[in-house]
## 1
Amino acid sequence: MKSKKVAIVGASGYSGEILVQLLLNHPHAELVAVTSRQNAGQTLAQVFPKFASHPKSKSLRFSEPKAEVLAKQADVVFLALPHGVAAEYAIPLLDAGAIVIDLSADFRLKSADIYKEFYAHDHPAPDLLKKSVYGLPEIYREQIKKSLLIASPGCYPTSILLPLIPLLKSGLIKSTGIIADSLSGVSGAGRKAETDYLFCECNESVRPYGVPKHRHLSEIEEQLSLAAKSQVQIQFTPHLIPVNRGILTTLYLAPEKHFSTETEMKSLGEKISACYKKFYGNEPFIRLLEGKNLPDTKNVIGTNICEIAWRLDARTGRLIVMSAEDNLVKGASGQAVQSMNIICGWPETAGLV
Amino acid sequence: MKSKKVAIVGASGYSGEILVQLLLNHPHAELVAVTSRQNAGQTLAQVFPKFASHPKSKSLRFSEPKAEVLAKQADVVFLALPHGVAAEYAIPLLDAGAIVIDLSADFRLKSADIYKEFYAHDHPAPDLLKKSVYGLPEIYREQIKKSLLIASPGCYPTSILLPLIPLLKSGLIKSTGIIADSLSGVSGAGRKAETDYLFCECNESVRPYGVPKHRHLSEIEEQLSLAAKSQVQIQFTPHLIPVNRGILTTLYLAPEKHFSTETEMKSLGEKISACYKKFYGNEPFIRLLEGKNLPDTKNVIGTNICEIAWRLDARTGRLIVMSAEDNLVKGASGQAVQSMNIICGWPETAGLV
Amino acid sequence: MKSKKVAIVGASGYSGEILVQLLLNHPHAELVAVTSRQNAGQTLAQVFPKFASHPKSKSLRFSEPKAEVLAKQADVVFLALPHGVAAEYAIPLLDAGAIVIDLSADFRLKSADIYKEFYAHDHPAPDLLKKSVYGLPEIYREQIKKSLLIASPGCYPTSILLPLIPLLKSGLIKSTGIIADSLSGVSGAGRKAETDYLFCECNESVRPYGVPKHRHLSEIEEQLSLAAKSQVQIQFTPHLIPVNRGILTTLYLAPEKHFSTETEMKSLGEKISACYKKFYGNEPFIRLLEGKNLPDTKNVIGTNICEIAWRLDARTGRLIVMSAEDNLVKGASGQAVQSMNIICGWPETAGLV
Amino acid sequence: MKSKKVAIVGASGYSGEILVQLLLNHPHAELVAVTSRQNAGQTLAQVFPKFASHPKSKSLRFSEPKAEVLAKQADVVFLALPHGVAAEYAIPLLDAGAIVIDLSADFRLKSADIYKEFYAHDHPAPDLLKKSVYGLPEIYREQIKKSLLIASPGCYPTSILLPLIPLLKSGLIKSTGIIADSLSGVSGAGRKAETDYLFCECNESVRPYGVPKHRHLSEIEEQLSLAAKSQVQIQFTPHLIPVNRGILTTLYLAPEKHFSTETEMKSLGEKISACYKKFYGNEPFIRLLEGKNLPDTKNVIGTNICEIAWRLDARTGRLIVMSAEDNLVKGASGQAVQSMNIICGWPETAGLV
């Protein structure tokens, strides 16, 4: 299988670090460049002592991020940059023929207006919004294959969209009244030196934030609307909990068809089960839980897997769906590598198991 | 102020430990007996090294729990026992004239049938259900004053009922469709030697459990129904998170009156604000958050305070209410002491600040 | 008892926060001023939501730190400032007649030369070094009574000096070859927005730092030398562990008298036990552990207590002494309040139990 | 490369779980049996939901541990059993021609008398003590190649022996007065339902234990004595800290040759550096830290790597050596797999990177 050269722009954050780890050990990708303004000149081993045992860690040095240089070095470039900055790199890289996999929010929305509403500045490259593909492989595998610009989904959106899209596409739930209650580990906030994310501020603490209008709502609702073929608005509440990694999402849903008897509940349950099996039965990175098992972030940490379980509540008539993922892997870097594998024609699980 | 003698039955669990701490330092209560089958004969200092600096810790010894003995020793007896066992002690203690404050679920429900439905055995003393008062002082202060048997509320119920009851009583929200999503620290599971609660099973883990029908639903729904004056059923999902103490609850509610314009939202907001101020403006243990503040368990740990904040979401038309409490204090032992203070005619905050 | 007005300069760090908590609830001290450049103008309730239920929290506002203003407002001023900055405030405050209790390292050393060696700049007020008293009440109670300038000890020094000084003064151990291995919670690093202390950098991590010459060595060795009446040099290794609060120190010591038989060991053990009882038997804030108990930070968190236990090792001929304290209370703010109580003639435990 | 069939006896504990993970993904070993009394009959997926995405997890079932059956199924058998029990399985398995890799302490000592002294019962198979090889590959690689019975080292011993043996063999340090201060994550206590290891008992707690004579001393001292060619006794203090995985050891050592000048220190430093490079410069699983780096457990978690750093202290004349490892990988299961790789003639890093 033909290997490709890859680069990471913004490799010193948490997503960047996981990308480095995955790409150092990828069977077909060759990591040729990592950039970081702050660490330019230092080796991988110096910035990340944990990678020091890898043969490449002492030769590969962080460089200043320069699009023109990167375009010459690499076939595939991952952008792990803040919103708004990523677009600046994507344009010249695409022009120079590179495949761009962007982990920021810059190309996730189809509408530049909604981008402005949620990110409070004009979109830096509205024309590219038509070209980008939302990098959720389980939903957009065919489009990803043919794309040169992947907008890799956010961590919260992944944990919400993967369990919801099959139900909406199958018409099993109403597209109104959806509630997503999410719990995220602290790495979701990035490696930023802010008081709020100090150990002593997070340990022995649980707190909601960004209520009621978190930025990720924009891409969640756009994707749900596409699945439901109607405008969807949801309620979304993120909470910060004291773990390094992991997102647990609990979804409160109204089945399209009312159920009250045991028979009706059983019948609906079979439909839900069949729906998930149809969509995800063969997906290597979705784990449909069976029996009494419920999702637990500790069972997915370090993997590219999203766990999904559901329960019908005969008392309230609701469907409760729960998911767990590693916010830095399936919720960020692992999923980005999965998209790269698809684009490059490699096995989708290459470097991810 | 006249002091009283108090005893704790089942003093070696987590709630028991907090009761010991609060009562050792209470200005009017004198702790005269602590019981524990397992630790009988040992001093407080031996069982709880952390209390070893208290003058009483070397003289006060754990004894076998015997109702007749306790009735002679103490004016007030706290029962920190498992469900089903508490009732066995309450009957003889009440007969002997003691005030009983029960931290178990045994006397929280008015209906023996619902007790059986949720706890899977016949209620051990159905006659007492009429005599007990649900020990939520902010709601039942007057009844507590005159009662001899307090059923101190559970930790989840406290975090859900305190924010909800004012809204239901004021008719500001619909009594249907209520969703309570709760996150609890591990001490909520008690000091039980079970694999599920080992450090390595809880640390770096987040997980839902008891979905969709947790036992606490029974008392939550009974109390909400009383407040709403109609039958209320809610959706309740507890999650286990890696902190020692604390519960964070997020409530998803439908305002009785639809709002869509800015003006309507402002007007509704003022009503909600006024409602909470009316009910809790003078409550020493409710903290209504203002401005941008949202509840954070770290701000209530070790206190008897419940924090409450709310947000209206113009996009979805919902009201989001969030609360935080220390599950072992306001959610258990602190609240029980608060009830004792009321019954005994002491300042309600005695020993709690 | 006559009350006094107190102020805290630098009240927004972790030590400052504990000082606020202790002084808000102190029976004889009245907190009249809190300063913080960053938070000037905001109320206590705004900066620390956890204090919002205290009646004073909405009236007391943070101000800019100005020595002349503080000198008029307060009888006692606590300085919770960085090294080097504290001295600037101490001079005018002392001139204006205030009692100054400094939590920084500025006045802990008797020698301006050693200060320069360890802190890398000239001492800002070398004359005051003669006037300051090292605020370890168990050792310097009489001197503290008469002092106007207290140099409150560091967190590591407290955990090392309290167990060592009695043994050195009694001549039970050699003053050479002492090793102190300490483990500290992350609050010891202060509320600084530095990447190293982010939740994800500390959680699931244990690491030594400052090896082999940590700044606290200077005051530790000066105090040990005074106790031993000879020049003492020790080995000290601090480690960072993922807890909010607490220091656990393990000391490796050589008994002055060799022991090899059971009888010799028993005899030496009795001397050690008697030594500690003589020094600390009546101390309210020292807990000498008995039987099989070993120190555990969770038993001292939130208290002003230092736990001490020891073991003789017949195999190696060594004495192992272990101590535990809350770095922010006995290791900082609680101990500072203890000194204030002594100076002001209040019960030494006032506001600390 | 010829593959082999492997079995794990006692696969449901923490070491067992890591063995399962490593062997499921090993390129040359085929996991054919896992045993557990408690879970017999259940699939791997049922007992460990985290492995549910592995193709084998639904076909491989836990069985009752029966030596005769295992001997027929597997070429290599890992024993992850309590001390004393492992020997019962080793005897028949060896008789039947299997390679046995034992993770318990049963075959780590050469002397049955010392075993009895430390483990308080007669050794169950003293004859086998001569045949077993201590499975520390960096030290006993040649012996491991030819052995059929590997006594895989304990977690604390590994973290102490790896940094010490080169120094002792090179005569750079004295063999007397060695102190090892170790900090271990809670998984070291095993998956045992004991109150001491509950989340709330370990979180926000740090404590020493087993002072002064921990069982692991026996194998540590036997191995050090072999390296030093003289009887070595050390001081060893383990501490429990709130992390899932990881051991950090700090060693206090006396260089054989006194140093006091800069030149002497530099010269000694070069010898230490050369010594470690000679022993470990080409070892894939030892990382000699350079520059300012100190060991940090977070940099080795999930890997088979042991990090080592050292500092000379000119003030005290001591050498401080620090090491970090994952107690479940290099300290247990990873190291056991490393030994298997050596015995089977596979690349030593197979399945470990």
## 2
Amino acid sequence: MQALQDLFPIFVPTLTDTMQTTNSHNETLYPHVSVDCVLLGIHDDLFCVLLTERRNAGTGQTEYKLPGSLIYETEDLDDAAYRILNETTGLKRVLLRQFRSFGSPHRTANKEDVLWLENASKMKIGRIVTVAYLALCKVRRMKISEKYSPAQWTPIDALPRLPFDHEEIIREAVKEIRLWTQIEPSIVFDYLPPLFTAAQLRHTYEIIYDKPIDVRNFHKKINAMEYVVQTEELQQGMPHRSARYYRFDKKKYNNMRAKLNTI
Amino acid sequence: MQALQDLFPIFVPTLTDTMQTTNSHNETLYPHVSVDCVLLGIHDDLFCVLLTERRNAGTGQTEYKLPGSLIYETEDLDDAAYRILNETTGLKRVLLRQFRSFGSPHRTANKEDVLWLENASKMKIGRIVTVAYLALCKVRRMKISEKYSPAQWTPIDALPRLPFDHEEIIREAVKEIRLWTQIEPSIVFDYLPPLFTAAQLRHTYEIIYDKPIDVRNFHKKINAMEYVVQTEELQQGMPHRSARYYRFDKKKYNNMRAKLNTI
């Protein structure tokens, strides 16, 4: 007798494994709302997003998606976000911030995506509103254990084909992070070592904003940033002229911030 | 024969009327996701939220709620927010910003709330995730026509009993607005006339932050705000000492902002 699985292949990625583990608590899924986690960070000098793998039952090929899943019937949204990130990547100490919900009725327009989710969740899927969470990550500090679904830091300007509206969610998340760096420029310095050159700072901005920044103008801008302080240290072992190191002066920065908001 | 309505009273607030109007387009409701609109503004020197009325079928009493409703099956979230605000208040030119989704499974713990929504929507209601939208309003400019559901600007520190988690949504919206005023202090000056006294500015902050602000310290703070500029004008017709008028210098403000974010 032909196995049922051959007739209607249920491919079970890690996501589904973990769902089933948690299903042993007799939790049922709520097939109308999902959570997706967008983790952004700089990896190998490129602005990247963390994608997990899934295997396409039809083609057998590996496909990529944001870490995400349907929520459980009795689960709050924040709890779902932390659970799903942990189940798919093992990551725990990531500060996830809800940034927007995506609810276009066209999200589930692609039948293949819906079929995958129906197989993975074993539920009939209609329209799904997804609540997207966002975190800015220090990639070097995030070790993802091999026992979890393979996860890839993928350059945001070289995304593979993604299911549902994951590409739009990532684009909006990148805009949101750029807004955060405008509101709170100190975020940018989290990406830099304590001592950094002007070129390193410029390059970090180029990566986040995805545009070239004029070197001469940038030096003027650094001078205007009172909280970016020149040090006496010079970069060592450079073939040509050694560049000077700068540091981020958090106290000066906070003073400037306080001057803008005095209340 | 007893009317069906007497056995199972369907009370039809304005919200349902408008739903039915739009239902003539053969749209059906999606009973899993709703949108709620939080309009905040200063009214009669109090920080207020716009609430609409509904009539309790059981007690016949008037109750209050945020303008909100279930979304339609084929409707995007932003479209739903603008439609619902317009249908319940007639308001059109309000810039609504999605600020957070609320999805606690306890949102629908109160059976009375669920019964009301089931009557209004004529659907079986389980758990609902709501996507909350926020707008900061100039109350004086917002005329709400009498043909809509009565709407009240209600002081946020004197809220009536509200259905679902509307009280929590309002509390979170107020926190969000306070955050906005920290990030972008210019928002506060939208509440003031072009010429204002130090007392008026202080009072506006007291209303938004809901705490008394020390007069002497506040004067020091105004001096530190380079974008709050003293004018030559004096307040007229005051019984005692006339207060000096200040103005908000948008150019200076933008320059300070640019100094913080130079990229």
